[in-house]
Amino acid sequence: MKIAVLPGDGIGTEIMAEAVKVLKALDLTFEMEEALVGGAAYEAHGHPLPDSTLNLAKAADAVLFGAVGDWKYDKLDRPLRPEQAILGLRKHLGLFANFRPAICYEQLVGASSLKPELIAGLDILIIRELTGDIYFGQPRGRRTAVDGHFPGAEEAFDTMRYSRPEIERIAHVAFQAARKRNKKVTSVDKANVLETFQFWKDVVTEVHAQYPDVELDHMYVDNAAMQLVKAPKKFDVVVTGNMFGDILSDEAAMLTGSIGMLPSASLDKHNKGLYEPSHGSAPDIAGKGIANPLATILSAAMMLRFSLQQPEAADRIESAVRSVLAAGYRTGDIWSEGMKQVGTREMGDAVVAALITKTITKS
Ligand code: IPM
Ligand code: MG
């Protein structure tokens, strides 16, 4: 099992060190190879996604990714900005299916800005299409307007588009995921305004005919944004396009009060995947040793389950995380009165200790 380890920028290196430590504590043999990505790769190689990094990612069975980005790169030409590394990996590896679970851990109910009763037991799964939509649609660019409200003025434009096969495959992913959960899919669109999303809605409805055991409903994205804070537990699986999914998944993550806890998986058609925490590179706290490594550690667990066929190892990591939370360990982002505040490294150590204790108890 070969894992490409791409820590990236900001807190990426700190949180990745903890996830690697946890993987090494399992009684499994991995080949792990590390490479630069994002701003770090730009500094060293002049490009955020050098060929060497892309080739490593292609050759590996799975990619474990930290985070990329820093404000200091905002002035670079777009193709050189750190974010292009993650967009390039998604595109070149064909990672079209993005799983972003939003789970409220029992011990962290108080960390949410929503009332505890709204989010206690929350377990929803956002499935975001990741290689299409306005993110990748061509043409895009700047030009002089020939029509519109200000002909002759400078303008910028992007193209929102989805083809039938792109919608069909993500719809299948969503219905199949729902079958393993509460059998309910909400497809989020903007069919009342956008041609692309009327088509999305029509195609999802057609695919649904193959899944009579799964309930499907449709919701406009503005309403979905509202329902997510009003009654989030009414959702099970949410499936949507790239841009709406970007926005709604941040909203869903924050419902749990702790974006520092949420892993994500981006899969290709063979279930090869890239695994990353849902949070970003947080340059404001980088290097301070205070970032929460749990989202990355839980991403490693998702990797074991989805791409490396090691469900038991995944369960072990997840239960170690739960026991560490139950024992009161908290990084600053999830800390509350009476809890043990720890740094990034201590949190990783605590997870490793919990893993080892469990192993001993079992044997
Ligand atoms: C995400 C991020 C990325 C996105 C950025 C960093 C390009 O916000 O993974 O949600 O917009 O997809
Ligand atoms: Mg985002």
Shape-level CATH architecture of the largest domain: 3-Layer(aba) Sandwich
Low-confidence stretches: none
Question: Structural class, please?
Answer: alpha/beta
Rounded to an integer, what's the Rg over CA atoms? Answer: 21 Å
- Per CATH, the superfamily of the largest domain is Isopropylmalate Dehydrogenase
Placed side by side, the strands forming the largest sheet appear as: 2-1-3-12-11-4-5-10-8-9
- State the total count of DSSP E strands: 14
Characterization of the model:
By secondary structure, this protein is an alpha/beta fold. It has two domains: 1-95 and 268-363, Isopropylmalate Dehydrogenase, CATH 3.40.718; 97-263, Isopropylmalate Dehydrogenase (3-Layer(aba) Sandwich), CATH 3.40.718. Helices cover 40% and strands 19% of the residues. The chain has twelve helices and 14 strands. The protein has helices at 12-24, 39-45, 51-59, 83-92, 116-119, 164-179, 195-208, 221-230, 242-255, 294-306, 311-326, 344-362, and strands at residues 2-8, 31-34, 62-67, 97-103, 123-129, 141-144, 154-157, 184-189, 215-220, 237-240, 263-267, 273-277, 329-330, 340-341. It has a ten-stranded mixed beta sheet, with helices on both faces. Strand 8, helix 7 (195-208) and strand 9 form a beta-alpha-beta unit. Helix 10 packs antiparallel against helix 11. It is globular and about 65 Å long. The two termini are 25 Å apart. The model has no long low-confidence stretch (mean pLDDT 95). 3-isopropylmalic acid binds next to helix 4.
Describe the SSE topology:
Layout (H helix, E strand, L loop, with lengths): L1 E7 L3 H13 L6 E4 L4 H7 L5 H9 L2 E6 L15 H10 L4 E7 L12 H4 L3 E7 L11 E4 L9 E4 L6 H16 L4 E6 L5 H14 L6 E6 H10 L6 E4 L1 H14 L7 E5 L5 E5 L16 H13 L4 H16 L2 E2 L9 E2 L2 H19 L1
Parallel strand pairs: 1-2, 1-3, 3-12, 5-10, 8-9, 8-10, 13-14
Antiparallel strand pairs: 4-5, 4-11, 6-7, 11-12
Helix pairs in contact: 1-10, 1-12, 6-7, 8-9, 10-11, 11-12
